[in-house]
């Protein structure tokens, strides 16, 4: 059963926290350069950032003093929660309210049973006054945010290219709503002071920082708005990670990057994943391509290892290709032992499948392991040029992800070697 989580939105100075209680203090942060904010027009999805030389400063990796009994925290992270109009229309009740919970019925136990659950909320939730919209300028009913918390998501990320679809005013109104959710929210902030406050979630005395960045937004922010959506920018990332090391024991970075519908990496992913590893980030959760991309361990320059999920793919959605129906949830344990920094064990993934019948009907999210041939034959994507079978759905994962990260049922030996 999921235990109570405490979200700390504070900055701690000169603190090598140790899975034990500590006294927080707040520190100011300088405003970043203007080129670390979003540009003013609709951007090219595939534009990569310029790469620069490796930073010179060494990242300190202190050995922490922790309880003698190891603490193990289970974590799951879902990719793009992509709410097209058929999903919210199907979730409309007769009384005019919305209920999205049935759409996640088949995966809710995985979310609820993890100690910490993360999701990238791809579509903004700006309120009814903006109207509810499909692609290309999404707006999703705010009931979705409430239902994500009910499902058990503890961390909700908004750093993605659609977050300004209803422009800066829409984001301002969304942030008023999301501040009431009781979850850790990140990737979109009221102002630079808010953005400078590292989001820290404490569980069983272990402090976990969450950072979030996007390659860009489809619509530029208003010059009159103070809201901030952090771009993938080396100076900003370096500064944030340094602060995260000061206030927490473990760091997770959410990165909205990569090329849509492609399972291979682009230059931005390759460069910044190594930068994050060199800075001492523990786990990278990638999304945006809407398809599954590889998982790997990256060696940092200080001898550390970073677990990188380059793209978790989609959660629920109404896209038209089989490759977009299959996603993965990141799955791993955070272990904290005496005289060691917390580290990752049992790194793997839990594949999911977005089901829909022709005409985008009956949309629901399933575990891929629950997909049957009968379901596959009825799937919408059969009418869009794909042949949907259980085997072909499995291949969306097994053709991309190394066997060491696969669940037993997708391994060549069926998991027999592991019992």
Give a verbal description of the structure.
This protein is 20% helix and 23% strand. It contains ten helices and 14 strands. It has a seven-stranded mixed sheet, covered by helices on one side. The two termini are 26 Å apart.
Which features characterize this protein?
419 residues, alpha/beta, seven-stranded mixed sheet, 10 helices, 23% strand, disordered N terminus, disordered C terminus
Number of helices: 10
Q: Please identify the oligomeric state.
A: single chain
Topology, number of strands = 14
Global geometry: globular
What is the CA-atom radius of gyration, in angstroms?
A: 20 Å
What number is the mean pLDDT?
A: 88
Q: Determine the strand fraction and express it as a percent band.
A: 15-25%
Helix/strand/pairing category: alpha/beta
What strand order characterises the main sheet?
Answer: 1-6-7-8-9-11-10
Helical percent range?
10-25%
- Spans of 5+ residues with little confidence (pLDDT < 50)? 3-58, 415-419
N- to C-terminal distance: 26 Å
Largest sheet: 7 strands, mixed
């Amino acid at each position: 059963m999921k235990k109570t989580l405490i979200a700390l939105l504070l900055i701690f100075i000169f603190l090598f926290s140790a899975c034990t209680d500590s006294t927080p203090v707040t520190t100011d942060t300088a405003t970043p350069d203007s080129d670390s904010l979003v540009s003013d027009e609709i951007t090219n999805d595939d534009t990569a950032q310029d790469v620069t030389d490796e930073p010179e400063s060494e990242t300190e990796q202190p050995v922490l003093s922790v309880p003698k009994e190891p603490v193990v925290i289970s974590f799951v992270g879902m990719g793009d929660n992509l709410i097209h109009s058929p999903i919210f229309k199907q979730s409309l009740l007769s009384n005019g309210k919305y209920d999205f919970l049935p759409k996640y019925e088949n995966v809710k136990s995985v979310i609820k049973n993890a100690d910490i659950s993360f999701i990238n909320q791809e579509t903004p939730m700006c309120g009814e006054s903006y109207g509810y919209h499909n692609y290309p300028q999404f707006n999703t009913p705010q009931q979705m945010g409430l239902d994500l918390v009910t499902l058990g998501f503890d961390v909700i990320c908004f750093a993605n290219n659609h977050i300004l679809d209803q422009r800066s005013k829409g984001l301002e109104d969304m942030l008023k709503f999301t501040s009431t959710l009781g979850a850790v929210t990140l990737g979109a902030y009221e102002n630079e002071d808010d953005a400078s406050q590292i989001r820290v979630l404490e569980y069983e005395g272990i402090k976990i920082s969450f950072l979030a960045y996007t390659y860009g937004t489809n619509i530029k922010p208003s010059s009159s708005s103070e809201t901030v959506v952090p771009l993938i920018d080396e100076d900003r990332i370096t500064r944030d990670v340094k602060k995260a090391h000061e206030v927490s024991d473990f760091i997770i970075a959410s990165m909205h990057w990569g090329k849509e519908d492609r399972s291979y990496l682009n230059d931005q992913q390759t460069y910044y994943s190594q930068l994050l590893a060199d800075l001492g980030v523990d786990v990278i959760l990638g999304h945006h391509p809407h398809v599954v991309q590889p998982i790997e361990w990256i060696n940092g320059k200080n001898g550390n290892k970073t677990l990188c999920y380059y793209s978790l793919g989609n959660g629920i959605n109404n896209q038209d290709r089989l490759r977009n129906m299959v996603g993965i949830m990141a799955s791993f344990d955070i272990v904290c032992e005496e005289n060691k920094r917390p580290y990752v064990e049992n790194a793997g993934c839990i594949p999911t499948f977005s089901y829909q019948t022709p005409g985008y009907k009956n949309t629901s999210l399933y575990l891929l392991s629950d997909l049957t041939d009968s379901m596959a034959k009825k799937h919408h994507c059969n009418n869009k040029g794909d042949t949907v079978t259980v085997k072909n759905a499995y291949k969306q994962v097994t053709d991309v992800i190394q066997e060491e990260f696969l669940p037993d049922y997708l391994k060549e030996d069926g998991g027999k070697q592991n019992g």
